TrEMBL record:
Cross-referenced InterPro entries: NAD(P)-bd_dom_sf, SDR_fam
A biological-process GO annotation: bile acid metabolic process
Domain of life: Bacteria
The entry's keywords: Oxidoreductase
PANTHER family in alphabetical order: DEHYDROGENASES, SHORT CHAIN (PTHR24321), ESTRADIOL 17-BETA-DEHYDROGENASE 8-RELATED (PTHR24321:SF8)
Entry keyword Hydrolase: no
CDD domains found in the cross-reference section: SDR_c
Molecular-function annotations in GO: oxidoreductase activity
Membership in a protein family: Belongs to the short-chain dehydrogenases/reductases (SDR) family.
The protein's name: SDR family oxidoreductase
Alphabetized Pfam families for the sequence: adh_short (PF00106)
Keyword DNA-binding: no
Amino acid sequence: MPNNQTNRQRFQGKTAIVTGAGSGIGKAAAIRLAQEGAKVALFDLQNDRTRSTEHEINNIFRGVSRSFDVDVSDPERMEKAVQEAASYFGGIDIVFANAGINGVLAPIEEMSFEDWERTLRINLNGTFLTVRYTLPYLKEKGEGSIIITSSINGSDRFAGFGMSAYSTTKAGQVGFAKMAALELAKFKIRVNVICPGAIATNIDQTSEPSDELKEIVIPVEYPEGSQPLADGPGQPEDVADLVAFLASSESKHITGARIVIDGAESLL
Ligand code: NAD
């Protein structure tokens, strides 16, 4: 199992919804939560990859996970899938709103409205809908933890090529998380937002910046070994550890926090 081993069982009797659970950070977090006793609803577009996460988890922790084919930006599908997951597992305690895309990388003048809107729809609307439809179930439990994946590209470091749409969504997620934290504190529902730096995942490999784009956009060069704490990017499991902390009662007095996890990349 590709994850940090643990003997702790902080999530016995809890259910988590993880979006973007078919790959990368979402997959690592789903495995981590299951390792510690959570039942996990895996939400993703990528059916085959999500099924393989489901099998991987269920082979070891029998029956604790189930995959759901969901586009997080589709309101009707989200509402229905959340309902299905809550009734299958008996409620929801933890929500990891993590699904996201880089989207098309292009200078602003060349960014089509459709490409701009698609990135906003998946990253921002997807986050809103995930919180919107899981909220009644968290309220029913009388407490809950919501964790949202933003990025240092939304607040700390603007070094990407043609990432105006992406950065806009990542900044928007921070604002949303803070307002939600304030609004939901009286229900004992905590909302925190995490900002990873570069993490070794498969995110949108197809949208690597072209050489032409690199010439158009003023490049901000990453120095050699761009994360001072490590030789390369962080690992999805590093982020999963943070997600588990924020999901657990160990962080019971933490809400509205924006936590950077980047090996000091944003300080360069
Ligand atoms: P990933 O591509 O490995 O995983 C993302 C998952 O989200 C995929 O399985 C994909 O199918 C799913 N997804 C995409 N659109 C969806 C939709 N409309 N509905 C449902 N699922 C959808 O990438 P990752 O790096 O694990 O990304 C997870 C989150 O982390 C994203 O929000 C991303 O912006 C953020 N992030 C990533 C990095 C990084 O360097 N990898 C850095 C900072 C932030």
